[in-house]
Design goal:
By secondary structure, the protein is of the alpha/beta class. Helices cover 34% and strands 14% of the residues. Strands 1, 2, 3, 4, 5, 6, 7, 8 and 9 form a 9-stranded mixed β-sheet that branches. Strand 3 and strand 4 form a beta hairpin. The longest helix has 27 residues, at 263-289. The two termini are 27 Å apart. Mean pLDDT is 90; it is low at 4-13.
Length: 375
């Protein structure tokens, strides 16, 4: 996977045609999840094939179909790669060939702060995204990247939308001039795994860490807000016949019973519970505001809310492709390995199996009719 070198940022960000009114809008959101990013690669391969079959275009890539692609952490890397026009075969090859470089152990003394060195990850991002800036016309879709600014303790939702306030070319701190690889590196800087990424904006230096540390490890609802709220400039029309939102997860991990756990195990479990809870909450918001066509049950009380009707009008059509990484769910998908093998974020030996699992989820969940009215 390699993009070509950057072009000067253009006044309309190279997205003039995309910003013009269209009858329908298509959004794609990809969760964060470390090595489990293999799951959405597998699911997206199925989506790409379905769209190729539906359109009769064997060379179609997802950048030809989606208007706005967003992601968090590894989801942001995948989103940016897709936006440059890469196929899923190319994304899969990039991930497979560079996996060992992503997770290079840090030196002994540095492991007190982070488990892995950033050198391999940095080099991969630089090699494959070149000198592409966020505002480069090399990006064929709108892109959203979720980071957390550790210096100000605030979530940063960064896009290449030329209408957004902080993308005004007259600003000295215009986001569009930021190197894309640095934003991706910051979004993927999971605390305890990788060091922060330092990014300079005009006279300010900020330290960025993984966007999974915000409420938007599942960025689907934030993507909808970026596309529709007047403050962000796009103001795309809403309605179940006007907007399609596809959300792809990296697998749900059951939270452990910590009733009798020791202090450190309990503290770690609480962090995981907060992240998992936020991911589910973002999914729930999308199902409440959208017309949901696909998604596993939220819980035993709410169910899956597929085609549920509420007292308010649906704002978009919505599909959530994900699976709980439990023994029962894995068995239903034809996978018999221990679920614990898939629960960590850095088990590189499980990558190929996670890809296969993503393909199984795609085959089981993605249906051509989910795209009716949007092809």
């Amino acid at each position: 996977m390699k993009t070509s070198q950057s072009e000067p940022t253009e006044s309309a960000n190279g997205l003039d045609q995309l910003l013009k009114p269209r009858p329908v809008r298509r959004l794609l959101a990809i969760d964060g999840g470390g090595v489990r990013g293999a799951i959405p690669i597998g699911v997206l391969s199925r989506i790409e094939q379905v769209l190729r079959d539906r359109t009769g275009r064997p060379g179609l890539v997802l950048a030809d179909y989606f208007d706005f692609i967003g992601g968090t952490s590894i989801g942001a890397v995948i989103a940016a790669a897709l936006s440059t026009g890469l196929s899923l075969d190319e994304v899969r090859s990039f991930a497979t060939e560079n996996l060992s470089r992503f997770f290079q152990p840090a030196s002994i003394w540095k492991r007190f702060r982070h488990k892995y060195s950033a050198e391999g990850l940095n080099q991969c991002l630089i090699e494959n995204f070149g000198e592409v800036e966020l505002g480069s016309s090399k990006l064929k879709t709108l892109v959203m990247i979720v980071l957390r600014n550790a210096s100000t303790d605030s979530p940063w939702i960064v896009t290449n939308n030329p209408l957004a306030k902080y993308n005004d070319a007259s600003r000295l701190d215009c986001n569009l001039r930021l190197p894309l690889w640095q934003l991706l590196r910051g979004s993927a800087a999971a605390p305890t795994f990788f060091p922060c990424e330092r990014i300079r904006l005009d006279a300010n230096d900020f330290q960025f860490v993984d966007g999974a540390g915000t409420i938007a490890n599942n960025p689907a609802f934030q993507l909808f807000l970026q596309a529709t709220l007047p403050a962000y400039g796009l103001k795309w029309p809403t309605g179940p016949d006007k907007m399609l939102l596809i959300s792809v997860g990296t697998g749900g991990v059951p939270t452990p019973n910590t009733a009798d756990a020791h202090f450190f195990a309990n503290a770690l479990a609480q962090i995981k519970c907060l992240s998992a809870g936020a991911t589910i909450e973002q999914d729930l918001l999308c199902r409440l505001l959208g017309r949901c066509l696909c998604g596993d049950p939220i819980d035993r009380e709410l169910g899956d809310l597929i085609r549920a009707e509420f007292a308010w009008p649906a704002q978009f059509t919505y599909c959530r492709y994900n699976a709980e990484l439990s023994a029962a769910m894995l068995g239903a998908l034809g996978h018999r390995r221990s679920p614990a093998r898939f629960h960590t974020l850095d088990n590189t030996s499980a990558f190929a199996e996670l890809l296969a699992l993503g393909e199984s989820i795609g085959s089981a969940r993605v249906r051509p009719e989910h795209f009716d009215g949007f092809v």
